[in-house]
Amino acid sequence: MPVVSTKPVYSGKAKDLFETDDPSVMRAYFRDSATAFNAQKKGEIHDKGKVNATISAYLFELCEKSGIKTHFIKQISENELLIKKVKIIPLEVIVRNITAGSLCKRLGIKEGKILKNPIVEFSYKDDALGDPLLTRAYIKDALEVADDKILDEITSLALKANEIFKEFFIGVGIKVVDFKLEFGTDKNGELLLADELSPDNFRFWDAKTNEKLDKDRFRQDLGNVEGAYQEMLKRVKEGSKSLIASPSVRNNKSTKYSVKVQVLPKKDILDPQGQAVEKALSSLGYKDISELRIGKEVVFKIDADSPAEVKKIVNEMCERLLANPVIEDFSIEIK
Ligand SMILES: Nc1ncnc2c1ncn2[C@@H]1O[C@H](COP(=O)(O)OP(=O)(O)O)[C@@H](O)[C@H]1O
Ligand SMILES: [Mg+2]
User: Fold this and answer.
1) Strand, helix or coil for residue 19
2) Which end of the chain is more exposed for a tag (fewer CB within 10 A), N or C?
3) Among 173, 196, 171, which residue's Cα sits nearest to residue 51?
4) Cβ density class 129-168: b for 16+ within 10 Å, e for less
């Protein structure tokens, strides 16, 4: 466990950043403090720090599993994440699926219209200026904080993240309306998704009722702000549970198991190959052989948390593909 300093090197609107004994690693402490409208409105949301740290940890892991590199290392307490230190590109990368917030204000469009295509837009991360909307030319030629190559890379990562988030959240009855991402470069110059992934930076609506389950409850004084954050934590945990059970997704803590699956035709099923071999053996003089069946053996290695989990996944694999349960028996050996 890294030794941590007690004085934050940076204290933002929602998080404190601390150095660790590894100069490339930081500790982010998520506070309960909430701000809106560029800090004109201030308050506290009970347990927001814990909820946002935990939701962020789950969603960063989801991104990593889907091939998006992030600054996330691990969650070390309810309120704290260890993260790779990056140089933040001062852009707020906003992805929108449904109209809300500043887009509605800017364009005079009603909230709740499904956009023809997801939109990626950039704002300047500068509270004093009110995070103004930027054009590519402003970014490349006026601010000079990113070039076309980085902007293309960020845009494609943001759209990919959007697809991952939409699929994950619709599974737990949530519409992803829009969200804000921050990117940075690590000591090797690698582009990483950074900051946080939480109801502070996402608009989440219940898919059935359109109830708002994010910071808009605080911004618009809708009440039950804490309940909305807790509800989102519950849904994220629910979604992550079914991900871990899925054979295609692994957990970092997992062990490698060797598996041998034996598939054989059922006893009362006609096995022409088996019958032919039995007959041939008999003609060679092996007359005491009976009930010979020929099957197949499938061997592989699998990452999982426990033998019980291996059993569950491999059973499912057998039923879906490796065996035909109507005419074949299978047995599973785990090492
Ligand atoms: N991996 C990281 N390395 C360095 N800085 C980071 C990293 N992730 C996030 N940050 C920065 O940490 C700061 C603290 O977060 P926050 O309290 O949300 O600040 P802000 O008031 O700027 O939104 C933000 O400015 C954010 O850009
Ligand atoms: Mg912030």
Assistant:
1) strand
2) N
3) 196
4) eebeebeeeebbeeeebbeeebbeebeebbeebbebbbeb
The CATH number of domain 10-245, selected from 1.10.150.130, 3.40.190.290, 3.30.470.20, 2.40.30.60: 3.30.470.20
Q: Whose CA is nearest to atom 19 of ligand 1?
A: 12
Query: Residue 327 has which token pair?
Result: 């005419």
Phi, psi of 314 (to 5 degrees): -70, -35
> Residue ranges per domain, the chain?
10-245, 255-334
Q: How many angstroms is it from 48 CA to the middle of ligand 1?
A: 16
- Number of alpha carbons in the 13 Å side-chain half-sphere of residue 255: 11
Residue owning the nearest CA to atom 8 of ligand 1:
195
Cα angle: 326, vertex 313, 173; to 5 degrees: 105
Residues 6+ apart with CB under 8 A from 335: 257, 258, 259, 260
Q: What is the mean pLDDT of each run of 10 residues along the chain (335 residues)?
A: 70 96 96 94 97 98 95 97 98 98 98 98 96 98 98 98 97 97 97 98 97 98 98 96 61 80 90 93 94 94 88 87 88 94
The pLDDT score that the predictor gives to residue 320 is 80
The amino acid present at 60, given as its one-letter code, is: F
For domain 255-334, which architecture applies? 2-Layer Sandwich (3.30)
pLDDT for the residue numbered 241: 86
